[in-house]
């Protein structure tokens, strides 16, 4: 097989995997659409792996005193589950949607740095592969996704799992930084001349703000990861208190990254919701400027709240008090967005399509996760509940309810654009109901388990009152989610087998990506429509009733 | 003396300061034609300055409380200059007299200089006051220990306060100049404020976590006696100082950034350019 391939013409479709050199054409591609799709496939593959790990956790915890999995393997599984879902599912999926859509939404034909784009993807991919290679190299990391020192130091984690964790995440971190640089430069330099920055679609705006967050947060994590690698490989003492280092310093590094990371994962979902809700409510977004400006507030404030993850490490009351207040404050801009989304739906002509259902489930579950988050800003509550299943429930409501549901909304919404085919609505609704009901069954009950005192990170538990039944129900919920996901994959498989039938704009949406064929050809635009407002396609379709001109 | 007695004691309130406050307010109200919002902003700024320089809060400085000194710095350097700039009518600052000074006439051009002046004032103001306090009261603050015989013990505070206020005024000028056409572009303003926020956060972080080094001193009773009428250990005092600079300082800049962005989202640059030149802010 020749390693040289013809450069495809602009007017051609994306290469098919079935053609002779199709696979090579994809692997060697620097096209933003192909890379976006590859990011999404990468996220889906790791979602399957992370999901299976979750099922193993739930199978182990279904019954008290269970010994299906050994404690050692359980530690590895829950560490890998968390790390996979955050760094290899939610991050690549968000970046993938951004990579695919940003040039299309701003009237550009490519990202600013196409090769950097490919480099970022392959670094993420390589990081994930290294992380999982640890299973074949003596054991996966087992110190939790937060990898706290000194547990993660050589004295307590003697296998090479933690080293693979460190190197794997350094690589994915470099990939994320590359992607962030690319997003910022693309938005600043490659916009259609008509599009002023204050006219950006909200999804683009959120990814743009998010890119700054990533640029500031990931170097912090990578610095910490490098320092720990030096500790482990060269016997340094950055995080070893016994020899003059500080284990708490690791927590500062990790959470100075970790709290912004919550928003790095959530902001793209906010952007998706801000596109989906208006289209399916047939109304422009209510309070565009508040939704957009509150993202900046969230981004900036997210760096002033990380110590709330450390309320139990023994910081003083003064420090705790300040971080309690600032953590409550960050709820204001987030709450503002919720009000705006509800305001958009108010008196709208709502179409209950699958993306809209996911958007509505997002609103409810994310609000709930936000409220339990506020409860964690109250220091004594954290002291009581931080090491219980209440916290597990809280962050799953934030990460799944607040991010994954948004991503599902986005996938259902943009799938016709990416593939030229519409996902089956009936199967989509089965996926939705099974997953959302299963999710709430699993994680709502875990709040109760937490309040009852069930600690997290334990591989089994005694048969205490209500623990067995609640855990069994939680496992049943996980099974429902699993079935829901199986239906989702079946839906994708079945749909991709069908011929392309979708036109340019099947949802009657308003942003520029819907002005291109579905799927777009290699060159996105021959001619970019004139843009005078935040809803260019609305203006074109409704010349008598255009939006307010902004340029 | 407990805190209530201390704060209610009239001798701890500066009568001269109060008189100056009333005089300044009267002059502002009589001489300058401004909107009600601007009047409120100016009154707030003046009141805050009085509270940190003339009220019992200012006197707490004499008990060796570093957090009070930090509060003074925040108000003088970060809060009051913004409030005052927003309260001034166009002509008060955009006139022949002030326009001779390049930093006033074209702050957009010199924004790096104004930023550096602000950041230097933020940091040196802190270290200077920490050193002065250390020399006066013999406490180690942020790892700084100055001898009682040092010249710092006799260094007057007033010039420091004035310099801080001037530096704060310059720092705020490119973003809050009363003449909108002389301000930085809104997005540049946000970056300007964000980097200022990084500076104040870094200082706050430093002071907060340096407080651990003061924890040994908590064991020495004499340092607790300094802290009447607001009993506070050296460590708590220092953490409070750092956190005030870090968290509220950062929130101040975040709120300012959000306000700027909210106006910018609605703006039509072509139309606004004409308005900016023709319509002074005070007449709107």
TrEMBL record, chain A:
Keyword list, A-Z? Cell membrane, Copper, Electron transport, Heme, Iron, Membrane, Metal-binding, Respiratory chain, Translocase, Transmembrane, Transmembrane helix, Transport
State the GO CC annotations.
plasma membrane
Q: Which SUPFAM superfamilies match?
A: Cytochrome c oxidase subunit I-like
Q: Which GO terms describe its biological process?
A: aerobic respiration; electron transport coupled proton transport; respiratory electron transport chain
Q: Which EC number(s) does the record attach to this protein?
A: 7.1.1.9
Primary location recorded for the protein, binned into one broad class: membrane
| Gene Ontology molecular-function annotations | cytochrome-c oxidase activity; heme binding; metal ion binding
Q: Which NCBIfam families match?
A: CtaD_CoxA (TIGR02891)
What name is this protein filed under?
Cytochrome c oxidase subunit 1
What species is given as this protein's source?
Answer: Bizionia arctica
Q: What is the lineage of its organism?
A: Bacteria, Pseudomonadati, Bacteroidota, Flavobacteriia, Flavobacteriales
UniProtKB/TrEMBL annotation, chain B:
Report what the protein is called.
Cytochrome c oxidase assembly protein
Domain of life from the UniProt record: Bacteria
The record's keywords, sorted A to Z, are: Cell membrane, Membrane, Transmembrane, Transmembrane helix
List the source organism: Bizionia arctica
Q: Which GO terms describe its cellular component?
A: plasma membrane
Q: How does it sit in the membrane?
A: Multi-pass membrane protein
Question: What stretches pass through the bilayer?
Answer: 12-31, 40-58, 70-89, 110-128, 158-177, 189-209, 243-265
Q: Where in the cell is it found?
A: Cell membrane
Q: Does the keyword Hydrolase apply?
A: no
Key word Transmembrane helix present in the record?
A: yes
Q: Which InterPro entries match?
A: Caa3_assmbl_CtaG-rel
């Amino acid at each position: 097989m020749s390693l040289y391939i013809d450069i495809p013409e602009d007017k051609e479709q994306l290469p098919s995997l079935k053609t002779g050199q199709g696979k090579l054409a994809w692997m060697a591609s620097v096209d933003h659409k192909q890379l976006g799709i590859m990011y999404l496939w990468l996220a889906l593959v790791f979602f399957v792996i992370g999901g299976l790990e979750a099922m193993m956790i739930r199978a182990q915890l279904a019954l008290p005193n269970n010994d299906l999995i050994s404690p050692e393997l359980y530690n590895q599984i829950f560490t890998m589950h968390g790390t996979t879902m955050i760094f290899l599912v939610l991050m690549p999926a968000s970046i993938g949607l951004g990579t695919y859509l940003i040039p299309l939404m701003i009237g550009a034909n490519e990202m600013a740095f196409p090769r950097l784009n490919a480099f970022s993807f392959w670094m993420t991919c390589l990081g994930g592969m290294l992380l999982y290679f640890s299973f074949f190299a003596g054991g996966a990391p087992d110190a939790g996704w937060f990898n706290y020192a000194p547990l993660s130091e050589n004295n307590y984690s003697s296998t090479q799992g933690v080293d693979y964790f460190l190197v794997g995440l350094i690589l994915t971190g470099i990939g994320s930084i590359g992607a962030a640089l690319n997003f910022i430069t693309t938005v600043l330099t490659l916009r259609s001349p008509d599009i002023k920055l204050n006219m950006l679609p909200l999804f683009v705006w959120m990814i743009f703000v998010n890119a700054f967050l990533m640029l500031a947060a990931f170097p912090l994590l990578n610095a910490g990861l490098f320092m720990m690698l030096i500790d482990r490989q060269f016997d340094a003492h950055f995080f070893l208190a016994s020899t003059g280092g500080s284990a708490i310093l690791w927590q500062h590094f990790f959470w100075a990254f970790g709290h912004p990371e919550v928003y790095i994962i959530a902001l793209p979902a906010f952007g998706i919701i801000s596109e989906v809700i208006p289209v399916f409510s047939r109304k422009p977004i209510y309070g565009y400027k508040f939704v957009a400006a509150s993202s900046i507030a969230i981004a900036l404030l997210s760096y002033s709240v990380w110590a709330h993850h450390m309320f139990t490490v023994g910081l003083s009351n003064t420090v705790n008090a300040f971080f309690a207040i600032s953590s409550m404050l960050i709820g204001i801009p987030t709450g503002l967005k919720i009000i705006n989304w509800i305001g958009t739906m108010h008196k709208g002509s709502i179409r209950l399509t699958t993306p809209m259902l996911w958007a509505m489930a997002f609103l409810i579950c994310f609000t709930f996760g936000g409220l339990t988050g506020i409860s964690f800003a109250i220091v004594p509550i954290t002291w009581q509940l931080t090491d219980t299943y209440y916290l597990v429930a809280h962050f799953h409501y934030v990460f799944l309810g607040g991010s994954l549901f948004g991503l599902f909304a986005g996938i259902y919404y943009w799938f016709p654009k990416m593939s030229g085919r519409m996902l089956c609505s009936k199967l989509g609704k089965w996926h939705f109901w099974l997953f959302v009901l299963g999710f709430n069954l699993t994680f709502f009950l875990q709040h109760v388990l937490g309040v009852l005192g069930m600690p997290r990170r334990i591989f089994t538990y005694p048969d205490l009152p209500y623990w067995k039944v609640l855990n069994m129900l939680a496992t049943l919920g996980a099974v429902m989610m699993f079935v829901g996901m199986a239906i989702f994959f079946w839906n994708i498989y079945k749909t991709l087998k069908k011929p392309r039938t979708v036109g340019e704009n099947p949802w009657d949406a308003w942003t520029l990506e819907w002005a291109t064929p579905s799927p777009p050809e290699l060159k996105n635009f021959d001619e970019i429509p004139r843009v005078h407002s935040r809803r260019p396609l609305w203006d074109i379709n409704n010349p008598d009733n255009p939006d307010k001109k902004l340029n | 003396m407990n805190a209530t007695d201390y704060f209610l004691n009239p001798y701890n309130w500066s009568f001269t300061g109060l008189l100056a406050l009333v005089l300044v307010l009267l002059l502002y109200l009589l001489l300058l034609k401004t909107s009600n919002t601007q009047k409120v902003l100016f009154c707030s700024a003046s009141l805050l300055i009085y509270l940190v320089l003339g009220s019992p809060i200012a006197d707490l400085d004499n008990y060796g409380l570093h957090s009070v000194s930090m509060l003074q710095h925040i108000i003088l350097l970060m809060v009051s200059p913004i409030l005052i700039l927003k309260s001034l009518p166009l002509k008060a600052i955009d006139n022949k007299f002030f326009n001779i000074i390049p930093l006033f006439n074209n702050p957009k051009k010199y924004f790096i200089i104004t930023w550096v002046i602000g950041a230097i004032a933020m940091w040196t103001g802190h270290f200077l006051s920490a050193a002065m306090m250390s020399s006066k009261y013999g406490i180690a603050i942020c790892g700084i220990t100055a001898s009682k015989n040092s010249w710092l013990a006799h260094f007057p505070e007033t010039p420091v306060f004035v310099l801080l206020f001037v530096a704060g005024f310059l720092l705020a000028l490119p973003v809050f100049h009363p003449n909108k056409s002389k301000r930085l572009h809104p997005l540049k303003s946000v970056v300007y404020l964000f980097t200022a926020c990084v500076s104040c956060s870094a200082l706050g972080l430093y002071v907060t976590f340096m407080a651990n080094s003061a924890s040994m001193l908590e064991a020495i009773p004499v340092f607790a006696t300094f802290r009447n009428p607001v009993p506070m250990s050296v460590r708590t005092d220092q953490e409070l100082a750092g956190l005030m600079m870090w968290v509220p300082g950062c929130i101040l800049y975040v709120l300012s950034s959000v306000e700027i962005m909210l106006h910018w989202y609605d703006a039509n640059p072509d139309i606004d350019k004409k308005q900016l030149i023709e319509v002074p802010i005070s007449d709107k």
